[in-house]
Structures are given as structure tokens and as C-alpha cells.
Amino acid sequence: MTTSTFQTRPRLTPALTAAGALLATLAIAAALLALGGYSPGEAFAALLRGAFGSWDRFVSFTLVRATPLLLTGLAVAFAFKARVWNIGAEGQLHAGALAAVAVAVALPGTPGLVLIPATLLAAAMAGALWASVPAAMKTGMGVGEVITTLLMNFVALFAAQFLVQGPLRESRGVFNQTDEIPAAAHLPDLVPGTRLHIGFLIGILIAVAMWLYLTRTPGGFRLRAVGASPRAAEVSGRFRARPVVWLAFLASGAIAGLAGGVQIAGITHRMYEGLSPGWGYTAIAVALLARLNPLAVVVTAIVFGALSAGGGAMQRDAGVPEVWVRGIEALVILAVLTVDRSWQALAGRGSRG
Amino acid sequence: MNTRSGNREGQGGSESRAAAACLRNVTRRFGPVTALEGVSFDLVPGEIHGLLGENGAGKTTLARILGGLLPPDEGRVEIGGRAVALRSARDARALGVAMVHQHFSLVPRFTGFENIALFNGGAWTAKGMAAPGYRDRVEARARELKLEVELDVPVARLGVGARQRIEILKALMSETGVLLLDEPTAVLAPREVDGLFAVLREVAGVGTGIVLVAHKLDEVLAAADRVTVLRRGRWVMTEAAASVSTGELAEAMVGGGVGAVAGKPPAAGADPAAATGKHAARKVASLHGVTVTRDGEPALRDVTVEVLRGEVLGIAGVDGNGQRELARVLAGIRTPHQGEAALPAEVGWIPQDRGHEGLVNDFTISENVAFALHGKDTFRKGPWLDWTRIEETAADLVREMDVRATSPAATAATLSGGNQQKVVTGREFLRGADLLVAESPTRGLDVKATVAVRSRLAALAREGDRPPGVVLISADLDEILELSDRIAVMVRGRLIPVPRDAHNPRDIGELMLAARGQAHQDDDPRGSARPATGSGPPPGGDHR
Amino acid sequence: MNHHLPGITALTLVAALACGGDAPASDDTPTNDPTPGVALLTPGPVSDAGWNAGAYEGLQRIGDSLGIRISHQQTLTPAEFDEAFISYADAGYGLIFGHGFEYQDAASRVAAEYPEVTFVISGGSRPSANVVALIFQLNEASYLAGMAAGAVTQSGIVGMVGGVEIPTAKGTFVAFEAGVKAVRGDATVLETFIGSWDNVSAAKEAAAAQLREGADVLIHNVDAASFAFFQSVREARERGRVAWAFGMNRDQNGVAPDVIVGSAVIDYTGMFLQTAEAWRDGTLGSEPVYSGLATGTVEFVPNPEQEGLIPADALELIDRARQGIIAGTLEVPSIDFIEAEDPVSSL
């Protein structure tokens, strides 16, 4: 059980395993595509082209798609780090989106310098508020947050449906969508000439701040300790887990809520049903694949964003139907996970991150 | 206490017969912990064989190996004279080995008869009813064993003793040569204990060998024919129950093994009597009439104690008599339900459960050390933790405590139990607190690590200008005797001081038993609890 | 702490290399194709046997009869709408269908940057120079269906089960109700929107609830959930009730021939083909393209399996109404949702 055991292990094996897993998965995907009558080469080429084909594609497609995954992924990673199993990023995202629209639409004529922060703050606060319900149930009554956060997702989705069909419906009253937010509330472009808005930068900044917090501050240390062992935190660290758990819920909810606000202010400019295709759930995979490391979440979110953008290109350029694309995406994620595990074995066990 | 009912063969006779079961040089490890080391054990038909030892001595592991629940790492298991490889409890049962667990495995809504029929599966018909005639067999078996069982009442409505009899009958419905009982008396009231032993004698009377796992000496001596004592995973003795005394057994359970390392406390300075004048100045912590309940039961009863700077107060006693609660009250993370606790702002505490409470396995040594430092200003730079400084401190600790690790960046999971304990011990020293609580600090450690940790503890209390007061809670009497200036015994939530002239294993062992006997009859909660302060009678009772 | 970062990065590269070997990534980009193609975005799977399937068939017809390259993408989120429009426009597609009102905002945004590309939005609400609204006057066929329902109902109670309450769906119901009342002035018309196009159990429950309230003829506009709707009608009949249903969007007479009176049908295929031909010929202006009984792409089709169910005199009335609508003498109620010139793209 000493570290030297791992170091003496031949390093080649995991590398081969990783390469083998990747090739095998790609071969399976290619075979399936061929069986379905689609050209595997064309499909994979389209996937890569869609995600990385040009600087503009990478920025406008992949990074734009990665942005909500980045923010929700960070939200999930932060909560999971404290052993708060927040499955509710999806609902918190919807709460944030609704609050963002409500605030932005209610304040026409406000300059962007005020309106954008107000909109995003409202989104973050709504997300935190949404997360506070399961937080109170966990800390107060010991109700497991897996169920409560999940159920709160449905509440949020139905609330969004109700609001866009009723109180928040566009003033024309025709479609089930809210009014468009004022132009002043639109997020500025991050890269001029592309569709990438500063929401992506916000995500990067949060990732860096979260990483610093977790690794460099006493509060982050306590949060990681509670996540690793609440009893050890109490006995060895002599601090109570409850405030830490609250912090994890609220911060996670706020970041997920922000994801909703950023999507509204940056892309859709209004709210309607079906805003999210399940980012809050994909975020769990994003966070886990990053081993809950906020900096790695940036990378995994981009990988998922690339897969998603590439999937669209697979449909357009290779004629592969959407359900197939999703199946291929799932296979690629499996391959990535396998490779990641093999890489872990290669690097040795026991990361503190 | 040692009287037997029933006339059965003596020890000599039984040894000539084929063993019902035996273990040969069995070793079993759990990760870095060796739970059993080269233990041999044999059980003859018709005997009740008491298996004694402190918690963690390995007795449950031994029973589980015999019951097929754990495979041994080394050594051999024989049932009925044949070497066998048990892969599951089912394998063991097929060979006639039945086990009654500490926690029962009965379906609460089913009646006793339904539970028995359910467990002995073949007895069912297609209609979901027990096969005709099975009821007669169950009743006949109960008569044969003189087992009073309620067969037609859902077991949820039965008392613990009655449920246990169902459990035993259930286990004995098929051909059974070996019956294993894991701490069967732990859940029983004293009167029920007598009833259980009467049943066991009947069961043994039909030729079944019984292994009775327990840690209560008097009960085992009352019931068993032979007694085997384990200590720290090793075999210590096997004797006919008639030829040993409780004192000898107590000594075998807790004493011997590890030699003295730290030397006796120095006579001058540490003698509390000599320091009476400076008593108030030396007091670092005190409990006054402290009562703590757990699950509605009192776990600490009216405990009054003072801890003085520069002394080691040893708290002896069998595990589970309130030591855990005492440590938590002293560490300041449990508030007494009654009474007062005057404690220093910070307390060093080496918790008993190193793996779950003392350390985070996924954290590095530095991070685990940071548990004692993260709140201190000297280890911060503005809003940040000063990791450089924490890592330096951890590196110093690794060097000073002689922790065998590649570096302070190694995770706790990669350390052996002894090295883990050195990290915890060193870290709690780092707090620089006036009070240090050490809970079973050497349990599970090998001899070398034990010596190291004990000598550090001894040095801590004796050296420096302002040494802390140390409370050493341990079931290991040797350890208590070796390190303590004052000793108290913990029995059923009470703290009983041990006079200086009784500082020897036999007297302390007897004191535990005597106090237990007293506690059985004593309804006055304060009757047996004399405060364990070293000097001067503390004010008693007026705190209410 | 970060040792797996290079891992993920590396494997992304490995994946890039492994895939890149199959086909050169950017050499054969469709951008190089000189003939403009036609593309379609649908909000749902083209296997829905309804809204999306009809559009997809139309796209395939365009490919076959115009000999032009076609492409389709199913989109899930608004971020994808923009992305897909841009990708198609960049790749040289000259005509892009967005099959649903939800594509309007994205089309308006993207259209300004691609003046040479024509965007056609089904149910679009903000036409501009190169954003064309495709308006399905399915309400005209619904009106005729309503007349048939008024003739068939015995209880005088008729039900309507809708998906999401959007103008096009609402419009069909407004017209249906008017049609019922044109034949049977005292009829009661029930209306339910289940808030989803594919919630099978909600569709089934909503139909069952209306049947319990005494309705004996039901029409739906729930797209993919219509199978459950028909099932509900069939179950009511098995309990001895009189129960009839209408198909919607596509000719569903064959889907449930035992319970269907007739279907209000849009010929998406014909409509898409007509639009694409107009685009090729340069006659597709910026005015909304209407498709109704007059253009021959909307029709009410009685179920041939149930001949005689609709009384002859009622069929006579229906035919007369049909002529009136085509001639413009009979105006069918509708829900108007076209905005003035799109303010965004007119800047």
C-alpha cells in the first residue's frame, strides 16, 4: 500500500489500455454508423469540423455551447466537493433564467452598466434561493438532497412553463415566451465578430476563483474536509459541517442560476419553455469527468461543447440523424471516461484535488 | 459465580474426542491491520467455549471465519475433522455450523414459526404454507432443547430474549455440530442472561459445540467449560473455566505483551499530593456532575473530575462504558445534558477512530496536519492559508514523530496504521492546548509504533514549561499503568477513582467487576460514583 | 491536483488525430460546392409522423425534383438555432427552412448578416427582406372538419385537445369551433391545451376527460401524441360510448380508420416544393407565403373507410363552404400573428 508500489508498475499498460479503449469505441461507433448506412469517415470529419473546423467555429459554436455547461459544471463541482449531491442545477438554472428575464424586462431604459449586473445578480440570487429549499431540508430535517434537488427541478420546469404561458408571457400574448429583454441587457461580445459573449469569460473567472478558494483559503479547506469526511471535519478540524453545507448549496445554486441568466442575456434574450436541453444534468458528467477540479471543468465543458457542436455538424454535413448523433456522443464520452481512468492509473492513485 | 449446572464430562474427556471445529494458525488482515495472527483454536462437541477479549482483540473475526463469513488469509479451518474451504455462510451451514448474530436476522412481521420455516427453506409447500409435520418437528426440537418459544406471535412483539431463543431454535433446526454466538448477552437483561445460559447448556447437552463470544468475564465464567483469551489478534491462553479466576482472565485480556517503555512517572513534581498548594493554578479542565445521555440511555452519569497540568490521568475500563462520550465532552464537541464542563479554549484530542475521525484518508499529511492549524493567524497570509508554512510544519512533524512516509504530500491512505497515529498524535500536540485527550492511542498499532506513541505522550506531559494535562482513555491496562499519575475506572458511565495502592492489573480488574456488580443492584445513580480528583474531596451533589 | 488536465487535453488531440485520419477535415467542406442547397431545421425528430416528418418529406421532395443538395438538422436549444443557420449559410445553402415559430428570433439575427440567403420560417411572425413567413391556413380545413363534426355529433358536445397553445394551433381550433356552430348552432365546444406536443399520457387523459363530459366527437392538434388521443377515443367506444375523432396536420385516416371521421391535412411536401420552386425562379418575395385550400396544399379529407358517416346533405354544405373559402367569399376565423416589418433587420 505504499506509493512506491504504483511507481514500480509498468507505465505502458495503462497507456495501451487507454489507446485500446479509445480505438475500440471509435471502431464500434464507426461500425454502427456504417450499419446505419452513414459514412463513418464523413461523420467523424463533420464532427471535428463542426467543433474545431475554424477559429470562428470553435469560438462561435463550441465555446458558446460550452458556456452553460461550464457554469453548471462548476456549480455541480462545488457542491459535490462538499459532498452536497446537488442534482438540481437544471432547476436552479431555470430559476435564474426566469429572474434574469423578469428583472431585465422590468427595467427598460436602464444603461447596460447597471442593467447587466442587475440581471446576472438576480439570476444568481434566484438560483441560490432555489437551492436554499433543499439546503434547509437537509440541514434542518436530514432529508437527502438527491431527491429534493431533483424534485425542485420539476418544480422549476413547471413554474417556467406556467410563467411563460401566463404572467410572463410576451405582451403581444401570442407565443409562449416572454418579451425580449432590452438591448442594454444583452451581454457584450467577448471575441468581436463571433457569437461568444462575456458569459464564457465569467465562467473562466469563476473557475479560477473557485480553484483558488478551494486550494488556498481556510474556507475552501474546510469545505473539502467536510466533503471528504464530515466526522473528521468535526473531530479533527473542530468546526461544524452545517454552515459549510449551506455555503455549498447556496454558492452552487447561485452559479447554476447565473448559467440561466447568462444564457438569457447572452444568447436567447428571452425565456421560453425548453430553454435548456438538460445542461444541469450534463453538468454532472462535466464535473465528474473533471474530478471536481474547477480548472479541469473548463476543459471538460469545452470537450462537451465540442461534442455538442460537432454533433450538429454531423447532422448537417453527414446526414446522421439526431438520435444517432446522441448515441455516438455517448460512446465518445464513455471512451473519454475510460481513457481518463486509465490515465489516472498511470499517474498513480490519490489526488487531493 | 463459577458453579455449573448439569453434569458433563470434564475437560480431559472431551479432548480425546474429535474436534467439532478447529482453526490452525489462522491469520487474517484487514488492510494494514492484522486482526488475527497465527491463532489456533479448537472446539470439542458438547462444550461451551468462551471466547474472550477486548474490542478489537479478534474474537469476532475468529467467529466469522468459523462461520464462513470471512476467509482466512493464512492457516486452516477444520470442521468435523476435515479441512474445509468455507466460501460463504451457506457453505458453513451445509457442514453444520450455525451462527447467531449480535443483531438478529428475523422478519419482524412474521411469527416465530414462520421465521423458522422461512429460514429452513425446504419446509415450504407450493401454497406458501409450511409443510405438514414441520410444525411438529419444530415443537419437538424446542422440547428437546427445553427452549421456551412463542411460535405464533409476530417476533416484533417479542422481547429480546424471546427473539434470541427463536433465533437459536432457527439455527438448530437442521443438523448442527457447531453453534456460534456473537456477543449474545450484549442485548440481554441480567435475568435473560441466566435463561440464555440454561438454554445453551441444553444445546450443548445434545452434543453441539458452542462458541460464546463475549467480553464480560463473569458471564463467560458462569457459562463456559473452557475459555480462550485473545489479545490484539493473538492467542493468549485457553483454560478450563474452573481453573481460572476473573482476575487472571482480566490480566490475560488487558495485560502483558508490551513492555514498559516510558518509565514510571517521576516521583517528584508529578505527585499530585505534593502539588496541592498549587492545585488551582494547575487545573486545566474540570467536569462537574456531568451527565450525558445517548439514545435515551445515560452514557455518562454524574461524572466529576479535574485534570491538572503536567499529569496523566488514566481512564481504564472496558470499551463502551461511556469513554467515547467522556472524550467528546472533554474535547468540547458534546455539551453535557446536566452538569458543567470547564474546558480550555482549545483541546488536543487523539480520537479513537483514527480512520474516520482522526484523519481524512484522501488528504495529504500536510492537509491532515492543517486541521490543527487552519484557524491560527500565524498560518494565514491575508485571506489565504499559508501552505508553505503548513507544509514546513508538517515536514517537521514527519521528522520528529518519525512518520514513515515518502513526503508530507503523501496521502494518509498510503500510511500504515502506526504512522497514521503518529500523524494524528503529532498534529494534536501542535495545537499547543492545555488539555490533551488521548483515546485508545495505541489500539491496532504494532509494538514499535506503540512504544513510539506512548513515549511521546509521556514526554509531552513531563517536559517543557507549561506541559498540558493529559487524559489517557484506554482499555489497555498496561498502558494506563505505565503512563498514568492518577487512574480512574469507567464503569457504566461512572468514573471511579483507583487508590494509588491499587495501581495493579489485578486490583483494577477486580474493581471493574466489583463496580459492575454494584451497579447491577445500585439504584442510586450517585452511590458508586466517587469523584476521581486527585486532591481534596470535590463538592458533591450541590450542583443541582 | 491537475495531473488529469493534460490527460483530457491529450485525448482530445488523440481523438482529433484518430478521426482526422478518416477524412481530411476541411478540404471537402461543402462551402466549396457552387450550387446553393436547401436546408431544414426541425425542432423535433422527423420520425414523429406529423409536423416534423411532413417537413422532412418536403425537403426530400425538393432534393428529388429540383436535383439540389439538401440537408437537415434537428435542433434542441436556441444556441443551436443561430449556429445551424450560420453553418448552413456559410456552407452555401441559399434557402433555409426553420420549421417552427421558435426559429424567428434566430433567423432575424442571422438574416441581416446573410442578405443573399433566404430564410423561411414556418409560422413566422416577423417578415423582413430575406425572412419569409410560411403561413399554414390549416384553419380552413379545420373549419370544414368542424362542419363535419357538427353533423356527426349526437350529444351536441364537441371537444378539442391541443398541444402547446401557439397561434397556429389556436387558429385551427377557432375555425373548427366556427365550423361546428355553422352546422349546429347550439353545440358546446370544449377546449384543452396539454402544454406539450408529445406528452402521450396528458393527451390521453385530456381526451378521456372531454369524453366524460359528454363530448362524442373530438379533434386534436397534439402532433406526436395523437396516437394516444385516438386510443382514448377507441377505449371510450369499447365502453359502449359513441365516439369519433378527427385527424390533424397529416392524413391520419389510415392511422385509426375505425374512429376517424376525416382529417384536416396540410401537404407540407407540396408546400415546401412550391416555396423552393418560387425561390429558384426568383419569385419568392418577402411577403408571407400562404397555403390554404386555394393553393391546394391544405384540404379536408373524409375517411374513405367511414363512407356515409357524414350525411350527404352535410357533405354538400361542406363542399359549398370549400368553394366559398377558395373564392374568398367565406372568411374563416383565424389568429393573426404577423408583426410589422421586423425592426431588427430593417435597421
From the alpha-carbon coordinates, what is the Rg of chain B to the nearest angstrom?
26 Å
- Give the C-level CATH assignment of chain A: Mainly Alpha
Largest interface: A-C, 75 and 56 residues
What number of domains of chain B?
3
Structural class designation of chain A: mainly alpha
Strand content of chain A: under 5%
Characterise this structure:
The complex is a heterotrimer of chains A (353), B (544) and C (347). Chain A is mostly helical and 353 residues long. Chain A has helices spanning 3-8, 12-35, 40-52, 55-81, 89-106, 112-141, 145-165, 199-216, 218-228, 230-235, 241-268, 279-289, 294-318, 322-347. In chain A, α4 packs parallel to α8 (199-216), α4 packs across α12 (279-289) and α5 crosses α11 (241-268). The longest helix of chain A has 30 residues, at 112-141. Mean pLDDT of chain A is 88; it is low at 1-10 and 349-353. Chain B folds into 3 domains: 14-96 and 175-183 and 193-255, 3-Layer(aba) Sandwich (Rossmann fold); 105-174, no CATH class; 277-346 and 432-544, P-loop containing nucleotide triphosphate hydrolases (Rossmann fold), CATH 3.40.50. Chain B has helices spanning 11-15, 59-66, 89-94, 112-119, 134-144, 160-172, 190-205, 217-223, 246-254, 279-282, 323-331, 354-358, 365-370, 387-400, 417-430, 447-462, 477-483, 505-521, and strands at 21-30, 33-43, 48-52, 74-79, 82-84, 97-100, 178-182, 209-214, 226-231, 234-240, 283-294, 297-308, 312-316, 338-342, 347-350, 380-381, 384-385, 435-439, 469-473, 486-491, 494-498. Chain B has a 6-stranded mixed beta sheet with strand order 6-7-8-3-9-10, with helices on both faces. In chain B, strands 15-18-19-13-20-21 form a 6-stranded mixed beta sheet, with helices on both faces. In chain B, α4 (112-119) runs parallel beside α6 (160-172), α9 packs across α18 (505-521) and α15 runs parallel beside α16 (447-462). The longest helix of chain B has 17 residues, at 505-521. Chain C has a domain at 139-265 and 299-327: Rossmann fold. Chain C has 10 helices and 12 strands. Chain C has helices at 4-20, 51-66, 78-90, 104-111, 138-152, 167-183, 200-212, 226-238, 268-281, 312-327, and strands at residues 37-42, 70-74, 93-98, 118-122, 131-136, 157-162, 188-193, 217-221, 244-249, 260-266, 289-291, 298-302. In chain C, α4 (104-111) links the parallel β3 and β4. Mean pLDDT of chain C is 84; it is low at 1-33 and 341-347. At the A-C interface, α2, α3, α4, α11 and α13 of A face α1, β2 and α3 of C.
